[in-house]
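Justification of resources, computational component.

The compute hours requested in this renewal are based largely on the per-chain cost of generating structure records like the one below. Each record pairs the submitted sequence with a full structure-token output. That output is archived, and it is also reused by downstream analysis tasks.
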Amino acid sequence: MNSVKYSLATLNRLLEVCGADQAIGHNIACSSRKTIATSSIGAKATELNLQVVVNAFHGFSHDRRCQLRNHPLYLSGLGLEDLETCECIFASSNSTAVLIRHVSYFHWMQFLDLHFDQWDMDRYTDLSTFLYNNYVQALRIIETDTPVLEEFKRLHSLMDADFINWQNEEYDYLCEVAMEPTSDAIAVAHVEQLEKLYYVEAMYGHLTTVPFLMYTPANFTRTSSLNVTSRNSSKVFESEHTSAICKYELQLNVVEDFELCHGITEQWLPHDSKYVQAAQYSQERQFIRSVEELEGLVVRYLFELLKANLAGTGRLQDAKYNKLAPLQNPPHPVLNYSEIVGYASLGEFSLLKHSRHNILTKPWTVSTNREMATKYFKLVRSHEEIVQLNVEIKRLQSWVEDEDRTILEAIDSLLANDPESLLVAELQIYYAKHHCINNIHRKRLQHIYTLDQYTGERPTTNQTVTGT
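The structure output for this chain reads:
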């Protein structure tokens, strides 16, 4: 609970500082989103349009259904960002462990402070290189994949909307095989309630056909009424009769309420097709759910290239299927997991050929189509990356000019008022170091401006690259 408390407090602070329309990477975003929604800041996060996303690297360890909704590749506005900055920071700090493991707390904090101070300076120095490399990467993806994708769309009469529809269809399919369809569950529950009704109705009918008095002629004489045995039998009969009526009326109310809640206007009879199908499904229900769960695992396996946590789960589901398969009518063949993991495509998995979902007819199950869909989403993210880079490049250009000018103005002001001030010397050292780095940024920014496909703003005047 403490970790959740601190993460929510950090998130609340980020919302206060950064405001609306923020995206935050979290390696368990699929579950943390639910935590945020039910927390005290849930309404605030919704109002500010907070988006919690699974980091790109961690996202590939999540199941396919989670990826389709939470991976940066499929989310609008994230560009080519992988959201793994914190992982890089933590990885860089690992090098300090061998040096500070046995030092005092003061030196432990001191060394970490020095480390991260240098890390910040290195990242600032590499900032223009980062922007240049990302721009070139995005342009390369656009230049390479655009003609391939356009030709594929032309040959197969496809539109951009088709790739988005494939993604949604795949997500819906994985949700459907992961959970029993609501219609099936309702049908089975309806039949179960009807069978209970027919049972208590039959019991009541049986009691009404039994003679009211349970005795033989020998039990009755001129001088005696019903003997004790007869009177006791009568009381038992009346008790059972009353109980049967109560059970029948109660179950009748249950059925009527169930049908009303689920919009069933006509009560099913045992010979109705819906009743027969639901009853048959109810008998085979456990096996069908086992088949669909196994089917979902196979699809995920082939689409996710053998996730680390899938093998054990798959073996358990395989064993469950093999236990139930021979008991069906007719018996179904058992599966060998070692053969399943060797399949290269869905078409090789015979179980799917008899799937009620007709998965092999879906366009998104074809490997070529999936490859092109990935290219489409990468292209969309690359165009988003270009738009954002144009903004960041302009910001960096403005920053290096404003920083140099602001520091020089501060130095001139101090020299005019107090030439002997120690702060002047400190600012001059700071300026000399940062001006050299800013000149590096200017050179790299010029390389970006000279790119043929550069679409951002260029500075009105060329800045002179000089040192001091």
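DSSP finds 18 helices and two strands in the chain. Residues 367-417 form the longest helix (51 residues).
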